[in-house]
């Protein structure tokens, strides 16, 4: 089965699971459980498709979005759908707020998919001024699409006040049912389906408090931590696991115990993004070895995906938890001996010693690249971080893949020099170091691996600008409103000593390869 059909199958299974749970609670068509669901119907009079939820009705927009994966619908998703659709019905914006990894942006995008609506995600930063945001609203108004502004409270307060006036101008024009309206001194067309959504992580570094005139235009929606066990169970069913309920309980129990019993490390993340990554690994392992019992498949995925990030002192505790939840199971690692042989050859070519521990780290880096497009290599100076990725690059060369790696230090330049800046006087765009590198790699032909290696300490002020690149959107949004999309072969690699200053939003967006001091010492 190709990946395209697998994605479609997963979407159908998770959708049917939700529909079955809803119909079990419904006894008539006026029941609130039924009315609060997003329901599609064909109107014979209008000869068109409409979507209804509570007292709101939307015409299906027929935007072709392709075979995109859909979210697992939980009670939290339902509540968020109701809040966002009611805000659109009342001609307001939606403002989901909550901790990292609770699905604020993804829920907004998923609602857009359900209504056949194009949703553009913009990563907000301090570089955005009122003119660049105004240009975005100008485009959204004329196309009738939705704009989702990620980390909206990173924009400067003085700019936010002007944005409030821009949003109110659009909302007033929709209320007055205007076909054209005056926006920033220009008479432009208005398609009334336009919508604006803002997502925020409260209390993080570099965040501003929203002005009152802006708060009044957006309806808040609190996103709490979702039901991990339900999401895990539905995703396991979708990946083909028969005993999904028991396995989901074991999975979530392991992550809960890890959160409580393991030491508090900055790079540990036991949230939704980490859970999803393990489930993807488990699904591919199951499809690759159909004869193996399901508990062994999940145990192998949980162990092999999490071991690379566990510090040495926590390893006995973690392995003890695994053996308690999956007793009497001793499943060997899935090994590609031919690939390991190539790594040894590549290591020798780089005049390095092909120790077993070092080879394992290179294999683990490749395994992380297979499921995450952003990876942190963590470790103290001299533990071999650069040697690990250089060995993998050399291995890809031996395999004839023509890898390209661009190494840069983000802390050696200012934020404006890294991501580019618009001159306030001339409105002329000056490209930044990272934007030039990413555009060049995205435009490259061929299907070899392309890596951007960021070697230097993490600072929320620059790494938060990469949020939409590191998550499922895979898009770099610049202050000039240019959008550079990551290709399938591109990866972001961060080579750092610690994640002390990184926010939870950053940590949850990447895979972690932790190199312990004793893994590869000066005398292995």
UniProtKB/TrEMBL annotation:
Q: Quote the Gene3D superfamilies the UniProt record gives.
A: 1.10.8.710, 1.20.58.1120, P-loop containing nucleotide triphosphate hydrolases
Q: Where is the Dynein heavy chain hydrolytic ATP-binding dynein motor region domain?
A: 60-386
GO (cellular component) term, any one: dynein complex
The cross-references to InterPro entries, in alphabetical order and at most eight, read: AAA_6, DHC, Dynein_AAA1S, P-loop_NTPase
Species classification? Eukaryota, Metazoa, Spiralia, Lophotrochozoa, Mollusca
Q: Which GO BP terms, alphabetically?
A: microtubule-based movement
**Any one GO molecular-function label of the UniProt entry:** dynein light intermediate chain binding
What is the name of this protein? Answer: Dynein heavy chain 17, axonemal
For this chain, the family text in UniProt reads:
Belongs to the dynein heavy chain family.
- SUPFAM superfamilies associated with the record: P-loop containing nucleoside triphosphate hydrolases (SSF52540)
Q: Which PANTHER family match?
A: DYNEIN HEAVY CHAIN, DYNEINS HEAVY CHAIN
């Amino acid at each position: 089965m190709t990946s395209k059909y697998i994605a479609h199958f997963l979407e159908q299974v998770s959708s049917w699971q939700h529909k079955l749970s809803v119909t079990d609670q419904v006894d008539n068509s006026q029941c609130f459980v039924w009315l609060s669901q997003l329901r599609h119907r064909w109107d014979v009079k209008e000869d068109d498709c409409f979507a209804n939820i509570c007292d709101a009705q939307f015409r299906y927009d027929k935007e072709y979005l392709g075979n995109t994966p859909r979210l697992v619908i939980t009670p939290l998703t339902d509540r968020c759908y109701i809040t966002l659709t009611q805000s659109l019905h009342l001609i307001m914006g939606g403002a989901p707020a909550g901790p990292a990894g609770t699905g604020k942006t993804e829920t907004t995008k998923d609602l857009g998919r359900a209504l056949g609506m194009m949703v553009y995600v913009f990563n907000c930063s301090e570089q955005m001024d009122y003119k660049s945001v105004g240009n975005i609203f100008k485009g959204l108004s004329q196309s009738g699409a939705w704009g989702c502004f990620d980390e909206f409270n990173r924009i400067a307060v003085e700019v936010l006040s002007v944005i409030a006036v821009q949003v109110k101008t659009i909302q007033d024009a929709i209320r007055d049912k205007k076909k054209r309206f005056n926006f920033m001194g220009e008479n432009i067309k208005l398609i009334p389906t336009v919508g604006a959504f803002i997502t925020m992580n409260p209390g993080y570094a570099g965040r501003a408090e929203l002005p009152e005139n802006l708060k009044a235009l957006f309806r808040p929606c609190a996103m709490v931590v979702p039901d991990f066990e339900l999401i895990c169970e539905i995703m396991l069913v979708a990946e083909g696991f028969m005993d999904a309920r028991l396995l989901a309980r074991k999975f979530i129990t392991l992550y809960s115990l890890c959160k409580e019993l393991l030491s508090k490390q900055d790079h540990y993340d036991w949230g939704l993004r980490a859970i999803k990554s393990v489930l993807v690994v488990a699904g591919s392992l199951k499809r690759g070895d159909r004869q193996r019992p399901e508990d062994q498949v999940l145990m192998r995925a949980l162990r092999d995906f999490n071991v690379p990030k566990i510090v040495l002192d926590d390893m006995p505790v973690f392995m003890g938890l695994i053996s308690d939840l999956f007793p009497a199971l001793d499943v060997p690692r899935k090994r590609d001996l031919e690939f390991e042989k190539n790594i040894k050859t590549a290591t020798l070519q780089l005049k390095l010693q092909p120790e077993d521990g070092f080879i394992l780290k290179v294999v683990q880096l490749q395994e992380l690249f297979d499921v995450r497009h952003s990876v942190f290599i963590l470790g103290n100076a001299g533990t071999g971080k650069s040697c690990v990725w250089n060995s993998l690059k050399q291995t890809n060369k031996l395999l004839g893949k023509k890898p390209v790696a661009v190494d840069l230090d983000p802390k050696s330049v200012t934020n404006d020099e890294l991501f580019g800046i618009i001159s306030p006087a001339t409105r002329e765009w000056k490209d930044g170091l990272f934007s030039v590198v990413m555009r060049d790699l995205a435009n490259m032909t061929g299907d070899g691996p392309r890596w951007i290696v960021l070697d230097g300490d993490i600072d929320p002020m620059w790494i938060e600008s990469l949020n939409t690149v590191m998550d499922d959107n895979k898009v770099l949004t610049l202050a000039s409103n240019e959008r550079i999309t990551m290709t399938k072969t591109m990866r972001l690699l961060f080579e750092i000593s610690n994640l002390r200053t990184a926010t939870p939003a950053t940590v949850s967006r990447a895979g972690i390869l932790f190199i312990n001091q004793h893994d590869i010492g000066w005398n292995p």
